[in-house]
Amino acid sequence: MVTLNLDMDVLRTLVMAQRLGGFNRAAEQVGRSQSAVSQQIHKLEARIGQPLFRKQGRGLELTEAGEVVLAYARRILDLNDEAVTAVRGAAVDGVVRFGLSADFAETGLPSALGRFNRAHPNVRVEATVDRNLILLERLDRGQLDLVLSIGQGARADARRVGTVPMVWIGRAQGEPVWQAGQPVPLALYEAPCFCRTAAIEALDRAGIPWRVTFTSPSLNGLFAAAAAGLGITLRTPMGLPATLAQLGSRDGLPPLGDVELCWHDAGRPVAPAVERFREIMHEVVEASLPAILGAKLEDLHRFSVSTVPAK
């Protein structure tokens, strides 16, 4: 059997097209024309012998063969990038003190930690999972080097990663936890909290009565309360367990806006190890957002993800 060698530049374009939502956006990113990118994909299809995309409405979606190739393309590129990083960063050492909200703890952090450790085994990472305001207070006191926050874009040191929607969250099965005309029971973080404020303001604007039935300092506590039917909560859809489901207008709840994801470093210069960790975590978040939020290829333009500028 003749072994086929896949062109990594084409694989990178394929991954980028899927992540950004189309060949035109991928073309802008790699500095090629859309026709040149399309030709790359067609050559890859000819080499494999199967189509990778099919028409779906006005957009494109991956075929089964495309899903397989995309999965392997990500692994191939990750290994390539890790090899390059490991060679270039072998001498990097030190400590990275990193804080993030619980929304990312199970969705992005494990992958980022694994990649970073393989590339920089001499660097120790101290990750802290807590509420945004507590993390930012620790950052300002010099106890953390870097924070990835939700809803804190007004800070002077905020460097925008992207935006994700806020959603109402309740239990996936069982009877509704409240009836029409009754106050909406809320399970919320203790004040002050960005999502707590957003939930209350959205209900007040819609003239819907509410009452706080459960408070917790942890996201796991909120999710457990919502799954038990003690109330509904408001968060992003990241890390949503199977026991919970997104609620919306069909449930009598008002629409919600998007929330910003931002990096913070308190305006201080960061060590090379910290900057490298930020780059890897940013790549993981950028790649995982569409899958986490259940986006289709033609819908990925909803998510505004920007490249972290170099300092």
- Quantity of strands, as a count: 12
Mean pLDDT: 80
Give the fraction of residues assigned to helices: 40-55%
User: CATH homologous superfamily of the largest domain?
Assistant: Periplasmic binding protein-like II
Structural class: alpha/beta
The general outline is: globular
Q: How many DSSP H or I helices?
A: 10
**The biggest beta sheet, please?**
5 strands, mixed
From N to C, what is the helix and strand string? HHHEEHEHHEHEEEEHEHEEEH
Unreliable stretches, pLDDT < 50, 5 or more residues?
A: 294-311
The N- and C-terminal alpha carbons lie at a distance of 49 Å
Oligomer state of the chains in this structure:
single chain
Which fold name corresponds to the CATH topology of the largest domain?
A: D-Maltodextrin-Binding Protein, domain 2
CATH classification class of the largest domain: Alpha Beta
| Overall radius of gyration | 22 Å
Please give a structural write-up.
It is a single chain. The chain has 311 residues and is an alpha/beta fold. It has three domains: 8-86, Winged helix-like DNA-binding domain superfamily/Winged helix DNA-binding domain (Arc Repressor Mutant, subunit A, Orthogonal Bundle), CATH 1.10.10.10; 93-163 and 261-302, Periplasmic binding protein-like II (D-Maltodextrin-Binding Protein, domain 2); 167-256, Periplasmic binding protein-like II (D-Maltodextrin-Binding Protein, domain 2). Helix content is 41%, strand content 21%. The strands form four sheets. A five-stranded mixed β-sheet has the order 4-3-5-12-6, with helices on both faces. A three-stranded antiparallel β-sheet has the order 10-7-11. It has a two-stranded antiparallel sheet with strand order 1-2. The longest helix has 25 residues, at 64-88. It is globular. Mean pLDDT is 80; it is low at 294-311.
